[in-house]
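Bit of a strange request maybe. I'm writing a small parser for structure token strings and I need a real example to test against, not something I typed by hand. Could someone generate the tokens for this chain?
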Amino acid sequence: MTEAIAVLDIGMTNKKVVLYSNELALIGEKKKVFPPLMRDGIETHDLKAMEEWFLASLGEFAASFSIGAIAVTTHGATFVCTDDKGNPVAPCIYYTHEPNREFHERFYERAGKPEDLQERTGTPNFSALINPAKGLFFLKENYPLEFAKAHWVLPYPQYWGMRLTGIAAAESTYLGCHTYLYDWQKNDYSSVADMLGIRAKLPYPIRQAWEVLGTISPDIAARTGLSLDTMVTLGIHDSNASILPHLASKVSHDFVLNSTGTWCVLMHPVDKYGFGPDELGKVVFFNRSAWNTPIKTAIFLGGKEYETWMDIIAKSSGAKSSRQLPKPDKKDYLRVLEECNCFILPEIVPGSGQFPGSVARAVQGGIAYPLSEIEAGKQKVVFLQDAKMAQAVLNLSIVLQTEVALQRTSIKPGTEILTEGGFRGNTDYNMLLGSCFPGNAVYLTDLQEATSFGAAMTALTALKKIDPRALSRYIHIEKVLVPSMFAPERLSAYRNAWHAQI
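Reply from user aminoacidic:
Good idea to test on real output. This should exercise your parser:
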């Protein structure tokens, strides 16, 4: 049988089992969406259903391929409280849950000032539970008996690793991504872990993504048909998996990776960790790469915003689905720019992106229509009924959010912008982005499953027992230059008006 590597790629929306050859060629993929389990009116992850599907999918692949190693990559901001065997003992809550303002005040009263924490942990303040320490604090307050039962508090990739191997661990890329739990200055767990009373429940030492966690347990082997010798690596944060091919390719140029999906994650590898005085309090943070180097990062819910508004546009214009909408052309964009009175503004999850004081809404002729009222059918917006014009307004909104995020990663003239993920196929978005940055080339790369590919790289390292930096020979990234849609001055008036609305 063909030898292969399996990746469990666990996004917020799509859960995947992806198969690669031992030369990192994509050879198979299964995908599924799982609805949340509701508990006390709160969305939680259906861990049991996901596990059953993962194992069934691995079993189907194992019938045709000899799988030597499994890597896990997951979305961020999620931890699982388990017993000593890795069985969940508390609900795994969606990070999109939004507690009230008083909750956040209580957290910072106990943990410390947001700016101080940001400086030490590289983590900004989010209003939802996007800071995992806040998610754990929420469990401690609302499910104290279950929280107290935890033997392990496991980062999400390592939870799945434990389910596969029975071995608990923690890994640097996940802990070093807006968790509040990792102290960049001490290279260890932070004081917030002590405040939560979980230091002893967090695995130690903090390990690396390409290390071998262990081999699969006899139970997993029996349920999947995989060999007992199948290795499982430590696991890796999804954004850090997507940038790993670029870091490993030994490309010397300066770049920002624009990784787009549910989240738009703008990542700029930099020489040293540290914030400028005007950056504290902003939604800018540091990822810790698989090389343990700093990556200056800014994020916003671009994919989720895009899908939310596209569904509204489809409904408003009478289309059966957003897939049936006619695409805008250059004339539609010119009309929007010249009239300069129609806008879509962030943020659909307040405090999740670059404009934490903004409330999601459409604006036409100076009148604001809140997203909540549009979705409830209480407000109708004229321009949303014009599908082509509305999409032009939406693309401009996403691009202007991207522009601010890029600026906050310390982009410089000459820094390349590499778009991967869902917005790779949105030509208008990328051409408009080029218009915003005339001094920076915008490229599309051919890594269409960059997150899964990056995770597979960690498994290949373990499987072949090679130095991670030797992976460059397996990586061939093609780049396609994107032309600008307009001269940059075309956007100036609209950009200023858009920001003025916020």
